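Two proteins, back to back. First:
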Amino acid sequence: MNVGPMRELGRVFDSVADAYDAARPSYPDELFTALSEVSGVRFEGATAVDVGAGTGILTRALRARGARVVAVEPGAEMLAHLVSRLDEPAAAVAAVRGDGDALPLAGATADLVCYAQSWHWLDPAESIAEARRVLRPGGAIAGCWNFSDAASAGWLADFEELLARELPTYWGPAAEKWSPPPIAAAFEVVEERWIPWTRFVGVEDFLLDLRSHSYMAALPREAADDLVGRQRAALTRAFPEGVLSVPMRVYLAVGR
């Protein structure tokens, strides 16, 4: 895992914003049930900050559950995709270009600060200090990550192992000493949970999702195309009908 400033997050992911917007998965309903239960925050009427909001996957899910959302994203292209998908008044969703280590928000204005697939790009101490600054008393901090559950399917283990062999910056379940980002160590944890779910996705969308990851964005285009082509051939042999059943797990950590 490469930890760096959030401006690097914006630079890397702006280059794959189209793929990210089209193919990254959302989160299961069970995640939001667990998040509300563990944090004590009811989404309806709450103010939630989505740090490293990307193209708005978590932003839209929180808004659908009644929260007012401030989406903070450093990448111009990623933020443009987020804004293009909004059909909300400005009072319901605010999209702001900014850095999670220096949130562009006043103190004590939020009930929930969330990092969905993003906290590992931030400074561990500065980001949590900023989250605490903008939280109201009784507010909560949450980090969540979608991971493929490679141990549950042989084809998926093979897929991840090929990535680990060929991608210098690969970070995932096939990496040596892999573990979730250590956000739990950054605050007093209320609870950690692993939430299993199954993603049904077409081969081409699955491969487009692959292209949206930072370790793929770091490859020269020809090398990325070659790797995707080989993965396509293997997946097509394993799933001739063209639809994958992908075992997934969401890691959730909530603290105050």
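And the second protein:
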Amino acid sequence: MARIPLDPPRGILVRIAQWYSRRTYGKVLDPVLAMGHHPRLMVGYARFEQSLSRWNKLDQDLKALALMASSASIGCAWCLDFGYWESRRQGMDHRRLHEVPTWRESDVYTPLERDVMEYAEAMTATPPTVDDALVDRLREQLGEPAVVELTAMVAVENLRSRINSALGLTSQGFKDSCEVPARG
């Protein structure tokens, strides 16, 4: 249950954000409703998120795995739900997404993907536990621009996940819309 009411004052900025969210995602995102209590923050955050979408030095699948590994470490159900849905929309295999929380035991990931998720978890730990050997492997495989982008994206996901978790935002059922019903 959300720790802040998801019924912000209905000013013009909140109405625009709700319209955009409904048009883009099919429903109004709970983080939008929560941030609607502080319209100036909501607008600044939206501009920030818009600029992130233009970053392109890191492979999208690697980025998705890193974001979900960070979300899983923090325990942000909303972020995992939305991340799964968004990555499925972009064509990522559902098994690779579903097994992110248990990636260490899974056999579906490449060594590079494992390094990326290890890095995301190490960055997310408090305090961070990133080691030089892991960064060297990532630099060798991805290049410096992609490692910098990976680092920034994991930091951003920490921001998102910690906001959403602290505000008590939980799954909105995005993942459910991706699931193929079992044949009975």
